[in-house]
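User: I'm putting together a teaching handout on how multi-component assemblies are represented. Below are the sequence lines for each component of a complex, exactly as they appear in our records. Could you produce the 3D structure of the whole assembly as structure tokens, so the students can see both representations side by side? Please keep the chain order the same as the input.
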Amino acid sequence: MSEQSDRIEQSPERLTPPNPHRSGYVAVVGKPNVGKSTLVNALVGHKVAIVSPKPQTTRRRIMGILTRDDAQIIFVDTPGIHEPRSALNKFMMREVENALGDCDAILFVVDASARPDDNDQRVAERIRTMAQPKVMALNKADLMDPQEVIPLTESYQQILGSENTMLTSGVQVRVENLNELIAMLVAVLPEGPELYPPEQYTDQPEKVLAAELIREQALRFLEQEVPHAVAVSVDEYAQRPNNITFVSATIFVERDSQKGILIGRNGGMLKRIGMEARREIEQMLGHKVYLELWVKVRESWRRDEEAVNDLLGKQL
Ligand SMILES: Nc1nc2c(ncn2[C@@H]2O[C@H](COP(=O)(O)OP(=O)(O)OP(=O)(O)O)[C@@H](O)[C@H]2O)c(=O)[nH]1
Ligand SMILES: [Mg+2]
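Assistant: Of course. Below is the structure of the complete assembly, with chains in the same order as your input.
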């Protein structure tokens, strides 16, 4: 009996030092609409980034911080990579480049329910030039035809030039796959201490999260070009008695006609966006919110670099 416990004491596992703590930034990049933000939210376990079925939802870098005993991963969600034309699109692509430049590893997200196309190839070529370790999430795996899993996985591994891939889904979360993806990322991060307090899960102040939640509802209810012409800024964010947060925000659009659509008949559209956004902000804060919305035209702001910096760059 005692002999056995002696042996356990001296087993090699007991003598190996624990794994070193690792930490670092993981840039989450890919084409628009492949599910990057949904995946970051699922990995972090908090809604840090808004999501919509419309491409070009994410406009800035957004940090989602995952703290575990053995590691801290700072996911940096980015806008979908596309050919930039307007000042807004150029701003978005600079955000991607900055995220790539500053990261310790890259998580390349693809929509694996479809074959790789020219845009996937282009993004893969850009990523392959980067020196950092790369991992690929074959996302929207829930939509994959089971017969296609192997051929599709192989074609994506080919464009990445590596077998570091994992099937993932941001909506039908298979926890094992997400855990395995996290393990793959931890393995390639450098040794280092926690870079943020363990309770912090994003770099965005509540005020900016609130503005984004309003934009998410505008993306949800508006159609065609109008949602893309929307920018939201929170002008006042204050605590009021009885545990109420007062939020006053302006929704910017580019033209008078868009303003009309955004307000809607008898103010119906704006009311709907406001009601749903208020609910979302209340859910985030865990208490009551009084939300006031204003609508303003800022003529063709997406084409104007100064306006883009004003509306997006200075938010943080
Ligand atoms: N079926 C399925 N749908 C998903 C998955 N992930 C995201 N979606 C949906 O795909 C759409 C785009 O998701 P986002 O997370 O906004 O995609 P994104 O890559 O961040 O998009 P951009 O910010 O525009 O580049 C939304 O309608 C999501 O609900 C997934 O794993 N499976
Ligand atoms: Mg996104």
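A couple of points students might notice: The beta strands are 22-30, 62-67, 71-77, 105-111, 134-139, 165-167, 231-240, 244-253, 288-297. The radius of gyration is 22 Å.
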